[in-house]
Known about the structure:
With 153 residues, this protein is an alpha+beta fold.
Amino acid sequence: MLYFLAAAALVALDQLTKLAIRSSLALGEQLTLLPGVLGLTYVQNTGMAFSSLSGRTGFLTLVSLSASVAMVVMLLRNRPFAHPFGKWILTLILAGAVGNLIDRFFFHYVTDMIQVLFVNFAVFNVADCCVVVGGILMAVYVGFFWERLEGEA
Length: 153
């Protein structure tokens, strides 16, 4: 239950930040938070990472829904990823998938706003952070700790 509450809190944070951006910035408007480091730019992304598959909202909605269902099933089944660290990884990925799923379902685009200014990088959101951090942690977990931690669980 704790993992689902944590995922819900992350989804709420994601949706609140997206609502704040949609209600305070015009599409394409930029706001610098830390000069040369971090800013906010309101972007509507109909694709996924780096705007790949733009305009394929229906397909991406199904992908987000499928990923969300898979994470819920794995959290409930207690295998694989039975160790608490594995469950937190699934929680992050679930939160990110649901956060972007909500946008795709209701708006037919994902609201992105976080912009790193010191490199040329895609604009992203809290849900994207959850998916990326969860994905990196999953790779580390499976690659380096799987046998030891899953044996403990």
